[in-house]
Amino acid sequence: MKSLFYLKNAAAKASDSNSILLRYYLKSTKKYKVKGLGITCTKDQWNQQDQKVKRSNTSHTLFNRRLNKIAELIDELEEKKGSENITSEDIDLIVEAAIKNVEVKEVINQSEHINQAIEIKVKSLVVNGKSEDMLYRYRRLKDIMGAIEKKYSININMDYIDKNNLQMKELIIEYGKSLGWSDTNVKNILNYTNMAINKYNELKNKSIKTFNIKSFEINREEEKDAVYITLNEIKIFYKFIFEPTEEQLKVQRIDLDYLKYYLVRCFSGVRLQDMNSDNFNNTRMQDFFTKKSLLLYTNKRKKTVNIPFIGNYLFDLCESLSWNFPEFSTSSQVSHFGSKESVAVKYYYESLIKPIRTIQVKRKKKIVYPPITEYLTSHTARKSFAMLVYDLTKSVLQVSKMLGHSSTEVTQRYLGLPDDFEKFEMIDLKF
């Protein structure tokens, strides 16, 4: 029997939980197709030579039936089409049919997936010469739908959306909130999905329901979570960059510059898109040391901030980066950089800080400790700066000025403070 199936982590301990993956070489693209099979067992329970799960696993019969089914379907397809003509989509169909225990033709006859509708929308945007920014949003939408499918174990085809419209809408909202998205971001995702469905309906002559966005109210009264990195955690990151211990040096496997860029914003509060050479250069930093005030340019307006506690930290970080900062021309470039930065920062947080501390979240006067991987984003740096300033000044107004917010109400939500936090009782003065 040819080897098609492998452990996801062959180096794992014998008793560790592991996943079985299909690894098939596509001659048509000269690349390997790697596909999850929904099978989990330990290394001890897997027989690589026989391509089977051992009997010690209670689900071995079901799993082995699935593996045999996939191997048989691939053999049949190779005979029918020729191995050089098998595509990635063919493998996806085979695996889906085996997992659902149905014939491949039944999978083909099912309703089209939401990603097909999104792809139709993308093609229409290309034809009409729309910006790369808009194309990036729809390509990201496909990734989001895939993540929702995986989290809630569902298949988002067009029939499902039509028949379970309200439920699907709630899942999108729930998923967005679990990642700390703002109400506006969630609403945008629903809107992009609706536009993809409308384009699909137009070309396929269908009438799939769209989501009722009007019923999705942005709740300004709900207290927002303020996720941030604490001062002590920032110190750990900073010392790791400039004075790492031998033990800490072992964890340096991801681009360290991303962590440096992140700390630059923890010390300055600047938005990711405004972290550029116009704001951070040697001349301006030298000026900062004499005036004790740093002028930051933003997309919306200029702002002057006075950061008395910053010391040499910001300058040293810029020096270590050789004063090289990203120059963004589109929001898609900002998002791409932010995603890569988040991955790096999460990695270093897990390695250096999580064993010692946990991220703090203020929620309705309580302190809770959610998993860092779900809540830490690139934007957390700016929120961390806000919390540092607030802890020192206890002034929402001061934080608001430094962040360049349009109102203190925005800043209060940033910090997770209730709307009436700084309201004072009227005093009747008597002379």
Percentage of residues in strands: 5-15%
Q: What topology, given as strand order, has the largest sheet?
A: 1-2-3
CATH architecture of the largest domain: Orthogonal Bundle
Largest sheet: 3 strands, antiparallel
> Alpha-carbon distance between the termini?
99 Å
How does the helix and strand content classify structurally? mainly alpha
In total, the number of strands is 10
| The named CATH superfamily of the largest domain | Telomere resolvase
Instruction: List the secondary-structure elements in sequence, H or E.
Output: EEEEEHHHHHHHHEHHHHEEHHEEHHHH
Q: What is the total domain count?
A: 3
Mean pLDDT across the residues is 79
Tally of alpha and pi helices: 18
Contiguous uncertain segments of 5+ residues? 218-224, 358-371, 423-431
Please describe what this structure looks like:
This protein has 431 residues and is mainly alpha-helical. It folds into three domains: 5-109, no CATH class; 114-204; 226-415, hpI Integrase, Chain A (Orthogonal Bundle), CATH 1.10.443.30. Helices cover 52% and strands 11% of the residues. It contains 18 helices and ten strands. The chain has helices spanning 60-81, 88-100, 104-109, 114-127, 132-152, 158-163, 165-178, 183-204, 231-242, 246-249, 256-268, 282-291, 313-320, 331-353, 372-375, 380-393, 396-403, 408-415, and strands at 5-7, 17-26, 31-42, 46-47, 52-53, 226-228, 294-297, 302-305, 360-363, 366-368. Strands 1-2-3 form a three-stranded antiparallel sheet, covered by helices on one side. Strands 6-9-10 form a three-stranded antiparallel sheet. A hairpin with a 4-residue loop joins strand 7 and strand 8. Helix 16 (380-393) runs antiparallel to helix 17 (396-403). The longest helix has 23 residues, at 331-353.
